[in-house]
Amino acid sequence: MTKSANLGFPRIGAHRELKKALEAYWKGETTAAALLATGTELRARHWQLQQQAGIDIIPSNDFSFYDHVLDTTAMLGAIPPRFAGIEDPLARYFAMARGTADAPAMEMTKWFDTNYHYIVPELHEGQNFRLSTSKVLDEYREAKALGIDTRPVLVGPVTWLSLGKAKQDGFDPLTLLDAVLPVYAELLAALKAEGAGWVQIDEPILALDLTEAQRAALRQAYHALHASAPSIMLTTYFGALLDNTALAVDLPVAGLHVDLVRAPEQLVPLLKVLPADKVLSIGLIDGRNIWRADLDRQLALATRAWDSVGPDRLVIAPSCSLLHSPVDLDGETELDDELRSWLAFARQKLSEIAALTLGIQRGRGAARDAFDASAAAIRSHRQSPRIHQPEVKARTRTSIDLNRGNAFPTRRTAQRQRFNLPAFPTTTIGSFPQTAAIREQRAAFKKARIAEADYETFLEAETEKAIRIQERIGLDVLVHGEFERNDMVEYFGEQLDGFAFTRNGWVQSYGSRFVKPPVIYGDVSRPAPMTVRWSAYAASLTDRPMKGMLTGPVTILQWSFVRVDQPRAETCRQIALAIRDEVLDLEAAGIGMIQIDEPALREGLPLRRRDWEAYLRWAVDCFRITASGVADQTQIHTHMCYAEFNDIMPAIAEMDADVISIETSRSDMELLRAFLDFRYPNEIGPGVWDIHSPRVPGQDEMELLLRKAAEGIAADQLWVNPDCGLKTRGWPEVESALTNLVATARSLRGEKSGQNLQ
Ligand SMILES: CN1c2c(nc(N)[nH]c2=O)NC[C@@H]1CNc1ccc(C(=O)N[C@@H](CCC(=O)N[C@@H](CCC(=O)N[C@@H](CCC(=O)O)C(=O)O)C(=O)O)C(=O)O)cc1
Ligand SMILES: N[C@@H](CCS)C(=O)O
Ligand SMILES: [Zn+2]
């Protein structure tokens, strides 16, 4: 009989219980026991909820206190030496993620093309591994004690190694496979002994362009593991198998999961080559977006698979883990009925999976209500007058000059004359601490407990305070602090037409940090200026240059739930035109420097190289639409963080921002190498402070990083700034670190005037 499965459930809890428990524990307000108890309660709740929704195959070990890749690292005992002295496993685990006073945190980067960040494994030659945690077994037993026989989820060994970073030049992490496999084998044998019938092993790298070494590693791994393991469901997602199809179907595993939301076209070729003994799990419900599924269309796809593999070898599943979906649409009491009827969050997706499974088992009539509701929602979305705005569509078809008035060297002269900044100008990336007081005031304003005028007065006072602090510290280019913003994307979504936002649609970004992606349901336009009031107010308080702060179109697109009835490029162009208008309004208000953040430009890069060029063309063009209208002497900045830049350097250069600030310090300036190798032509601020850690770097440390940067970048191209915005930090850390940062710049200026720097 065809079964329903889930591949992972969000960890956070419908009321963000996990976030609250983690942050209280980190602040020392609660005990480890209380934190662990929250974990136990959330796991039990989520297992039961999946059972009640009618899911046959329920995952365990999808829960994590921080990150599932870090859990795998801890499981393998791959503890970087700087943390090895920490005795308590929980303290060591969080130290690896967040750093301590003595030990910088491990690096963090994007999980494939998502806004989820994982902690990057640190790998070196001769590394030893041993089974070092019992989490996988414990959670399997925990569910079993509740009467639920789960399918444990593991990050596969080849994906784990491929995501890791060599700590020595020229070292290939895949050479550690021989050392890692015995640990996986031991764990899998223990799971089997415990009674696990199946295990889900995620190898999402199978949706990427693979090297021969990775292919060989996959063959070696599964030939070594399958004999002693429970039946393995090898799980791929986020894209098609394409040229990896033959490799995947030949691996000695019992089942294969494929993503038919991102790549429905892969079903037919796959069915042709799928061996007759393999179970096929088809991902039919979108784990990456919030639109209600077209159940009739998906049933047709499932039927195509069913015709080929029969009822007993078919599993109906989400495309990927539901980690990337908000928890429960029932929490959205303020969405209008029409919009709500178009959406499905994780809980609703479970019901969709169950309905589809019933549909394939017993025919559409067996789940008639669900199918009819789905068909009605699809019809209503298609026909709704809220979706299409002819004037917006017409504007996207007009041609726009993508070039600034003059090339960078000319603009640079004009900007130097206008701003007259010292060498190594210092600045920050935009946000200052979002303190509890600020969040409380905003919550009070949103619940109409305080008047708008009082909220604005409060924000004005916070902004002024931040400006005085920046002046006192001696920063050269100031920012207003972004106190009025809940999030750098949601804030814009709330002010643009065509967007809806949720009250509780939280999705994990990293650790205890969550985002509430807005929903782009229709054509996008800007009814009124969005940021001018705050930038102009801030500029009026100081004589120093004030940098306006905008989120770029690709990032707004990438960090929203995007409509699927038109190409992403089209939606992005609509957003770009709205941001262009904002840029021009800022310029007209006298703001001479405007930062257009594009931290998600790299994240949006398609997983397969063959699709890169087309994406980069429209993504870069959209950025250029936002910036090309300003005068030479208006300085355009951009900012990027938590990504590998090597692959997209020409595109970054083509964006032609006058200044780019990038996150580099957590990787010890390694991310800067792409800019050095490429000889990045414009100005650049490599981050010298890892702002994701509560650790305050000293002046020596920052100087060392800047000197590394200055080895390849001309001193007069360099800016001095943190890795990213400071919204997650507290004021005392910010003041000390920025004081050190300004002292660093001054020290280098002193040397530069004596010409000693390079
Ligand atoms: C730069 N980053 C961002 C990414 N994606 C985004 N969409 N935004 C980003 O900034 N991706 C890459 C990186 C990831 N980094 C971060 C960093 C920090 C956060 C973060 O701090 N998230 C906050 C939530 C922010 C927010 O929306 N806040 C709202 C609501 C606050 C709230 O919880 N209010 C309470 C009531 C107030 C109280 O009493 O405390 C409530 O509603 O119950 C706001 O400020 O109004 C987080 O807390 O996780 C995310 C990604
Ligand atoms: N301006 C934003 C960029 C974050 S990527 C901030 O400072 O938070
Ligand atoms: Zn950033």
Write the layout of secondary structure elements.
Elements lengths: L2 E2 L12 H10 L5 H21 L6 E2 L7 H8 L13 H10 L9 E3 L6 E3 L2 E2 L11 H11 L5 E5 L1 H7 L1 E2 L10 H18 L3 E5 L9 H14 L5 E5 L9 H6 L4 E5 L7 H7 L5 E7 L9 H15 L4 E5 L18 H5 L4 H17 L5 H16 L6 H8 L10 H12 L16 H11 L5 H22 L16 H6 L1 E4 L6 E4 L2 E3 L3 E7 L6 H9 L6 E5 L1 H6 L9 H21 L4 E5 L14 H16 L7 E6 L8 H7 L3 E4 L10 H6 L4 E4 L12 H12 L20 H23 L5
Parallel strand pairs: 1-12, 2-6, 5-7, 6-8, 8-9, 9-10, 10-11, 11-12, 17-18, 18-19, 19-20, 20-21
Antiparallel strand pairs: 3-4, 13-16, 14-15
Bound molecules: ligand LYWDKB7T, 2-amino-4-mercapto-butyric acid (HCS) and zinc ion.
The site of zinc ion has 6 residues, from loops.
Cofactor: Zn(2+)
Pathway: Amino-acid biosynthesis; L-methionine biosynthesis via de novo pathway; L-methionine from L-homocysteine (MetE route): step 1/1
Keywords: Amino-acid biosynthesis, Metal-binding, Methionine biosynthesis, Methyltransferase, Repeat, Transferase, Zinc
